[in-house]
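Run: sequence + phosphoric acid mono(formamide)ester -> complex structure.
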Amino acid sequence: MQLTEQATTLSSSSAPPSMSLRHVVESQQFTVPLLMELFDRARLMERIVARGGTLDYQNRILASLFYQPSTRTRFSFEAAMHRLGGRVLSTEHARAFSSEIESEQVEDSIRIIGSYSDVIVIRHHEEGGARRAAAVSPVPVINAGDGDGGQHPTQALLDLFTIYHERPIEGLSVAFIGELDRGRTVRSLAYLLAKFDRVKIYFVSPPEMQMKPDILQYLDRHNVKYELESSIDRVVGEVDVVYQTRIRPDRVSNVASRMRYAIDSSVLGKLKSNAMILHPLPRTVELDKTVDSDPRAFYFKQAANGLCVRMALLTMLLDR
Ligand code: CP
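>> structure
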């Protein structure tokens, strides 16, 4: 389908043809040319959204299947499909389906839902849930987050797009802070950053929550420099991007212990003047509300970028 920039079907500028992409399960699937194609399309989507959207995908249906809660991912995917003129079948309580309670396997659910829709977005509580879905699906499957130690590739795509909007990725230094061993957004973004030259990553967390060896080994294989740290103060003044994440209260109940990894006005004073603060959200105590008005706070722009990046991704999958 030819994507048009008008809210009608009149074409004044169209997206480039999509390179091959069947399912989106993990961020390693994306090459740099594929990322650049996605980002070009996302910029086109910004212009299309400013005009109210397009009707080009009006006969296409997105099924949004969430076995875990979501605000940003689910709403932005659904808004993306609406802005493209398509329709949405949605549940945010997939685990409460009568079929799930009766032990229906995700494979059977996907085969059926795939026969009603053109693309499926799935967030699953088990690591590998999206991969299992993709293995049997008759239509493209997008991983919207799987398990505790899986991935969240579309979050990483919008994270990278947010950075790319502001500065080159080559030579970037990034501090990932928080509960990294279960950080699916951090895992996905680390894979993407590894595709660019001269990137340096600092993993900052309590030692028992440090990044898992599979990611570190991947970075080693791709000659990406990284350091493991347990102190925010030793790295925040060094980096271009601070990527803050939660430490969940069920793992560290003591608020003071979690606050050791928080960004507040004292940390702001140590950051580079042109640093970017990102957070996939939702937040708890690790990102003080006083940071919101700082020009280095990009996390609301980051969440907003989810709309155009996900519109772009949907067009790449639906145009195949
Ligand atoms: N960042 C993110 O995945 O947010 P939601 O859980 O609200 O989708």
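>> summary
The pocket of phosphoric acid mono(formamide)ester is lined by residues 70-73, 145, 152, 155, 280-281 (CB under 6 Å). The mean pLDDT is 92.
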